[in-house]
Structure formats: C-alpha cells, structure tokens
Amino acid sequence: MTREQTIDEAPYTAVHQDGIGQPDTLERLWTPYRMAYIRGENKPEDPSAAQCPFCRIPAMSDEAGLIVHRGALSFVVLNLYPYAPGHVMVCPYRHIANYTETTVEEAAEIAALTKAAVETLKRVSNPAGFNIGMNQGVAGGAGIAAHLHQHVVPRWVGDQNFMPIIGRTKTLPELLGDTREMLAGAWG
Predict the structure, then answer these.
(1) Is residue 149 among the annotated active site residues?
(2) Same domain, 25 and 41
C-alpha cells in the first residue's frame, strides 16, 4: 500500500492499494480502539449480573469506572467504544434488560440524567446536535443486551459517515403507510 496526499487543504491521507483500480478520495478516520468492540472482546459471555460490566462499574471509583455522575437509581458513564467524543450512557444500577422493566422512579431518573448529560455536553463541547436512544436486544443493536443503557451521543455536522450521509440512501423495510396503519391500530 502507498500513502499520498491528494487534497492540499485537507489534513488527510488517501490510501491506494495496487490492483484495486482507481484510488478513491474518501477521508479515512482510523478508530482502532473500536476493533475490541467489533471482536466482542471483554463482552460478557454470561448475561447475568455477575459478568455484566454495567453491574461491576458502580463498585469502582469514578475514575476507574469512567463514571461521570452517580444518581440514586442510575449512573452516567463514558462509552468505552464511543461513536463521538463525549458519548455517554445512562444506566440503571439494577440489572434489567428492557425499558419496560424500569420502575417509575428509575425511568424518571434515567430521563433526568439524560437531560443533564445533554446540558453538560452542550456547555463543554458545543455539539450541533445529539443522538439519544436505547438499543433493545441484540437484533436492536444492543452491544450488551442484558443491561439497559441509554446512549447520549453528541454530534457535529460531518462527524460521522453513515448510509444517509455517504450514500444519500435510507433503507426502509416497510412502506410508510403500512407502518402508520400498524402503529395507529395499536395505539392506546
């Protein structure tokens, strides 16, 4: 492989490998720390609380556990494999997998800590926006599906490369009218 500067103003390196055709002009943002996440390293094999990192972290010091804030029922912790700088998670202390298992008090504190995380990130990082959400179950994208956690990801214009941004394409498995009908029929 050879490396060459292709754009004078941009501080990036294009990568060209012989035999694959014309080199592209895509920017590369190398994030080797995420390879541990992709390989599933340190992911608990047993979904019980005994191996759950979100159950072990509260017993650590704030510094060792990367805890940003402790509440009465939930805590805020930095993501070990962040999508963006400042990516935190709000986790209940209790080992539960689904949002529907939270008590009223837990749900209220998770919401309050999420709001506080957003306000804090606004003050310290000045992001242009946020992604906030919970991935439920393995199929829903949860890296550790056995313990509920809400992601708060600060975002800046052009910070990530996803299908809608790069490919200008959204993938939708169902027609919007069908989705609307299903949700309206099941509402309340």
Answers:
(1) yes
(2) no
